């Protein structure tokens, strides 16, 4: 795909791509104003905003593509980039077109920039003039502080974004030319702009290229010039904190400037078709920028080439589908977009196991981050080999887990773990917490590094474990590794204590969610079947396997079903070999998730026969998948009400049934006529023609909230959702929110 950042030297009428700050002034230089950055590639220049230490938000038309065309692609009326046909829920490579990357100048002056970053990847939403550029190296906090993005409006303003925008002042910023046709500048300029209109009307009121996702402003003390494309529109709250409210798109007729609003919440959550409805920009930005720490993230790599992980076998708390990219033979990156660690300087703990029926082993590479993990796979004799794999990422607040360096001198963990290197490639990890009374029941270790060294658990007792790492020749070798241990009952695991035979694993070293028994059966040399009787009868989740004992062997997962995992073990030459192992079956849905749904307001969109407003009464309730006593909330009638708000929002809460992926909820509203205007009528809330009640499906695995309707579907991340009925005489618009907490951990 050809990509080109371009800048125009002149400003054509009406449809000019992004001119920016004429007039204005130079702001005080500090880490806050340095969030406005310059974007440079291909001899052109744009403006952007640092929204995360490693992410810059700019205009989509700054990076354009159209097949293999290396020239500047034309723009259509909606100002969307030609690469909108790509999936918005993943990042794409910039280096194929720009081997040196796209330069991001942070805090540039008339001389050299204070910090010059390099963007190597990009992501775009559907049909919106916006792009996220991902930096190879995060910007240090001493250089610039990222600006928070206004992905949704504060408080009840989300109910009336037009009213919130009206009369509000904003600040436009950019590095554009000082005059039309003038040279590009390295000086940042800012200007106050007024007369904001949202949504910007199309062909009305002096505005030309409007749209539901666009915000337009009058000139104020300045207006756009070439090079300011992608520049931020800042809003300052009452506390003095700046927020990024919109991204500069271009000159809007003779009136002022046109921006893409970051808080736009309409349309589908994601789309990958160029002419599909506009993406939910706010949810897209939340997923990529704000992300989520979550508890468990995982995926199963179903192919050995680039692909999105099958959703049944994938979990990303940030709500964006995880995917896999192949870098070289046997070298991959597993991507969890938006996934964050609990603390910026503390990594998540990751384990990986090879998948399938070939003698390949997989481990972690050196590039292990919260939202992307390098995986390296090898065949016999340590030769890189393509392979499928299963990967599991947990934060350090759940299990007893940590990251150990090869010297055994450091361990990163939230729990009081200590590590001691007792010999070449041999490490002892111990829990230093006298308050802990439960012995470890599951322990695993995954090697990290750029060679074929693998690590496994040699032994453990109580709350102390010995880890051994071996190179491709079977020699004990120092290696960094990720370590995990647990005695929790919210996950299923087992330890194979024997090499042959059939029977139950020792009771102290196994657990099954649901209270069943774990059994391990040897079916052939080096082949085992682990049954987790009692697990919910469903497929999905993630399985991790680690060899056990002082043996030159490795084990992997051959496959798994709803209640069974197949394990295969090999020696260093790739031959089947009997070995002991530990196996873990993880699905955070096994333990249940706490779900809360709130009704915020109802608004009548048409009049009933007896008055100007409806007589609202109704209920919000869970209909399936939830256990608990607070699963129904009713609200009493209020007469002649156009807008119904609540002093205390009707709320339903519950814990999802263990193993349940979907939870169903329904909102029903009735107009009480009392006999004067006929019988009571059900108020139309759903978008389609044949359904009145609003039926919600909460997808706990994919973090999606859907409105089910035969004629329409609204989908978003968890959060606030607005829907309206369209066809009945008595209809209403509704706003409600759904919040799903982390898995309900039992300790």
Give the helix/strand layout.
Blueprint: E1 22-23, E2 36-41, E3 44-52, E4 55-58, E5 92-93, E6 102-106, E7 115-123, E8 131-135, H1 161-165, E9 170-174, E10 189-193, E11 214-218, E12 222-223, E13 232-236, E14 242-252, E15 256-261, H2 281-290, E16 296-300, E17 307-308, E18 314-315, E19 323-328, E20 331-335, E21 349-355, E22 361-368, E23 372-378, E24 388-394, E25 400-404, E26 411-412, E27 417-423, E28 426-431, E29 442-448, E30 454-461, E31 464-470, E32 480-486, E33 492-495, E34 502-504, E35 510-511, E36 518-524, E37 527-532, E38 542-548, E39 553-560, E40 564-571, E41 580-586, E42 593-604, E43 614-624, E44 626-627, E45 632-641, E46 643-645, E47 651-656, E48 662-671, E49 681-682, E50 694-699, E51 704-708, E52 714-716, E53 719-724, E54 732-743
Antiparallel strand pairs: 1-12, 2-3, 2-6, 3-4, 4-8, 5-7, 6-7, 7-8, 9-10, 9-13, 11-15, 13-14, 14-15, 16-18, 16-24, 17-19, 19-20, 20-23, 21-24, 22-23, 25-26, 25-32, 27-28, 28-31, 29-32, 30-31, 33-35, 33-41, 34-36, 36-37, 37-40, 38-41, 39-40, 42-46, 42-47, 42-54, 43-45, 43-48, 44-47, 48-49, ...
What does this structure look like?
Strand 25 and strand 26 form a beta hairpin. Strands 43, 45, 48, 49, 50, 51 and 52 form a seven-stranded antiparallel beta sheet that branches. The protein has three domains: 22-261, Thrombin, subunit H (Beta Barrel); 345-356 and 368-574, no CATH class; 593-743, C2 domain (Immunoglobulin-like, Sandwich). The model is unreliable at 1-20 and 65-80 (pLDDT under 50). The protein is globular and about 80 Å long. The two termini are 50 Å apart. It has two helices and 54 strands.
């Amino acid at each position: 795909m050809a990509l080109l950042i371009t800048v125009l030297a002149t400003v054509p009428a009406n449809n000019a791509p992004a001119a920016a700050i004429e007039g204005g002034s130079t702001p005080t230089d500090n880490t806050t104003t340095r969030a406005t950055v310059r974007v440079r590639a291909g001899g052109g220049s744009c403006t952007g905003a640092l929204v995360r230490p490693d992410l810059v938000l700019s205009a989509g038309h700054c990076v354009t593509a159209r097949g293999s065309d290396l020239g500047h692609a034309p723009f259509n009326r909606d100002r969307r980039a030609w690469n909108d046909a790509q999936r918005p829920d993943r990042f794409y490579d910039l280096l194929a077109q720009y081997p040196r990357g796209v330069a991001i100048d942070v805090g540039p002056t008339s001389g050299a920039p204070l910090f010059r970053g390099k963007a190597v990847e990009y992501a775009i939403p559907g049909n919106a003039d916006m792009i996220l550029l991902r930096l190879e190296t995060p910007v240090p906090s001493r250089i610039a502080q990222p600006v928070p993005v206004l992905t949704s409006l504060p408080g009840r303003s989300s109910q009336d974004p037009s009213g919130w925008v009206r009369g509000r002042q904003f600040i436009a910023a950019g590095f554009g030319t000082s005059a039309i046709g003038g040279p590009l500048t390295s000086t940042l300029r800012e200007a106050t702009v007024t007369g904001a209109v949202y949504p910007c009307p199309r062909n009305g009121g002096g505005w030309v290229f409007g749209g539901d996702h666009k915000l337009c402003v009058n000139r104020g003390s300045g207006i756009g010039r070439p090079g300011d494309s992608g520049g931020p529109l800042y809003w300052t709250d009452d506390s003095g904190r700046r927020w990024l409210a919109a991204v500069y798109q271009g000159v809007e007729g003779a009136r002022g400037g046109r921006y893409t609003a970051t808080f736009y919440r309409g349309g589908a959550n994601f789309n990958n078709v160029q002419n599909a409805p506009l993406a939910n920009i706010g949810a897209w930005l939340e997923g990529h920028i704000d992300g989520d720490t979550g508890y468990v993230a995982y995926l199963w790599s179903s192919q050995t080439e680039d692909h999105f992980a099958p959703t049944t076998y994938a979990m990303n708390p940030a709500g964006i589908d995880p995917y896999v990219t192949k870098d070289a033979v046997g070298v991959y990156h597993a991507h969890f977009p938006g996934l964050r660690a609990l603390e910026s300087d503390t990594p998540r703990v990751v384990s990986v196991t090879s998948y399938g029926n070939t003698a390949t082993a997989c481990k972690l590479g050196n590039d292990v981050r919260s939202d992307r993990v390098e995986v390296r796979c090898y065949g016999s004799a340590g030769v890189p080999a393509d392979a499928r794999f299963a990967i599991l990422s947990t934060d350090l607040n759940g299990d007893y887990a940590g990251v150990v360096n090869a010297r055994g001198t450091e361990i990163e963990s939230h729990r009081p773990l200590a590590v001691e290197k007792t010999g070449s490639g041999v490490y002892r990890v111990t829990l230093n917490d006298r308050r802990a009374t439960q012995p470890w029941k599951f322990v695993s270790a995954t090697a990290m590094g750029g060679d074929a060294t693998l690590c496994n658990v040699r032994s453990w007792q109580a709350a102390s474990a010995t880890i051994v790492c071996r190179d491709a020749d079977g020699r004990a070798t120092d290696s960094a590794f990720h370590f995990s241990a647990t005695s929790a009952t919210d996950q299923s695991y087992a330890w194979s204590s024997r090499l042959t035979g059939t029977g139950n694993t020792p009771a102290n070293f196994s657990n099954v969610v649901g209270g069943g028994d774990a059994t391990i059966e040897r079916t052939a040399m080096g082949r085992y079947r682990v049954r987790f009787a009692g697990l919910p009868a469903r497929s999905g989740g993630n399985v991790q396997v680690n060899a056990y004992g002082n043996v030159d062997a490795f084990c992997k997962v051959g496959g798994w079903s709803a209640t069974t995992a197949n394990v295969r073990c090999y020696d260093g030459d790739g031959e089947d070999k009997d070995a002991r192992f530990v196996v873990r079956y993880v699905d955070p849905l096994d333990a249940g998730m706490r779900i809360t749904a709130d009704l915020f307001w109802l608004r009548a969109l048409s009049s009933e026969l007896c008055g100007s407003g409806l007589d609202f009464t109704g209920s919000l309730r869970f209909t399936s998948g939830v256990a608990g006593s607070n699963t129904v909330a009713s609200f009493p009638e209020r007469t002649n009400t156009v807008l119904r708000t609540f002093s205390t929002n009707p709320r339903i809460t519950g814990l999802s049934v263990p193993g349940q992926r979907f939870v169903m909820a329904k909102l029903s509203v009735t107009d009480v006529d009392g006999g004067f205007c006929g019988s009571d009528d059900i108020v139309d809330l759903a978008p389609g023609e044949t359904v009145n009640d609003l039926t919600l499906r909460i997808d706990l695995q994919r973090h999606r909230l859907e409105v089910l309707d035969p004629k329409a579907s609204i989908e978003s991340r968890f959060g606030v959702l607005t829907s309206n009925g369209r066809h009945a005489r008595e209809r209403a618009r509704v706003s409600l929110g759904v919040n799903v907490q982390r898995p309900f951990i039992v300790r």
